[in-house]
Amino acid sequence: MVPFDYFRYTQFGLKLLGEKNGFKIVSIEPHGGIFINIEFMMWEALSKFFPTENPVAGYVVRFIILLPLKILSGTIFNILDVLDRKKEFTLNYNVVYKKI
User: So where are the chain's domains?
Assistant: First the structure.
């Protein structure tokens, strides 16, 4: 995310970087699939419509309106994410390396 998103690695790039530096991949696990990614992008877009210059109004909007919607959408998109078996379009990866 802006301004600190300098690189985006795929599972293949993470594997190659590890192997080139003397590591063996123990596991690579995606952080969700396409539906989790869609939910993330949806909430990023929605955040642009709810400015937070006024702190009190920002808290009211976030906790009274957005929090219940976030819980509902999170539940729905997590259920749908089960349908994405490959999880190739993910937010990120957890990688465990082992030094060779």
Answer: 1-31+90-100, 34-83
